[in-house]
């Protein structure tokens, strides 16, 4: 498939959004870590409706989901590129992958903290 630049602003943006949705679907349907995180986001959305969280809590919860899924997506891209460039194990590639995974850990810990701040008081 040859790359063709679309010089029209509107159709170019529409194509970009289409590619973004295609990438999101690929992530959700092929990457196990994204499947788990997306499923947890759905469960927390249901919990948000059940516990009737307020607008501020919804904002924080949605930002946390976006952060984790966004960073996980970038981590997946880094891993795929690293595997493409150097398919065999290499210490430097492993180091790069570990750093990308560490970024996901930071985001996940922040999301857990947000979830605890929102839902622990509902149980107390």
Architecture overview:
- The chain is mainly alpha-helical and 124 residues long.
- It has one domain: Helix Hairpins (Orthogonal Bundle), CATH 1.10.287.
- Helix content is 85%, strand content 0%.
- The longest helix has 33 residues.
- The protein is flat, with a radius of gyration of 18 Å.
- The mean pLDDT is 93.
- It is found in: Cell membrane.
Structural class: mainly alpha
| Poorly predicted ranges | none
Average residue pLDDT: 93
Structural shape: flat
Number of β-strand runs = 0
- CATH architecture label name: Orthogonal Bundle
Transmembrane segments: 34-53, 99-120
InterPro entries: DAGK, DAGK_sf, UDPK
Protein name: Diacylglycerol kinase family protein
GO biological process, one term: phospholipid biosynthetic process
Quick tags:
transmembrane, flat, Helix Hairpins, mainly alpha
Short précis:
Substrate binds at residue 72. The protein has 124 residues and is an all-alpha fold. Helix content is 85%, strand content 0%.
Layout of helices and strands:
Layout: H1 9-30, H2 32-50, H3 55-85, H4 91-123
Helix pairs in contact: 1-2, 2-3, 3-4
């Amino acid at each position: 498939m040859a790359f063709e630049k679309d010089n029209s602003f509107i159709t170019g943006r529409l194509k970009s959004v289409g590619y973004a949705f295609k990438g999101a679907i690929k992530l959700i349907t092929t990457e196990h870590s994204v499947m788990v995180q997306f499923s947890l986001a759905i469960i927390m959305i249901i919990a948000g409706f059940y516990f009737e969280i307020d607008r501020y809590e919804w904002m924080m919860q949605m930002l946390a989901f976006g952060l984790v899924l966004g960073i996980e997506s970038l981590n997946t891209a880094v891993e795929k590129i690293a595997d493409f460039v150097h398919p065999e194990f290499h210490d430097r590639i492993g180091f790069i992958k570990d750093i990308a995974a560490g970024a996901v850990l930071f985001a996940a810990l922040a999301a857990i903290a947000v979830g605890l701040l929102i839902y622990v008081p509902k149980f107390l």
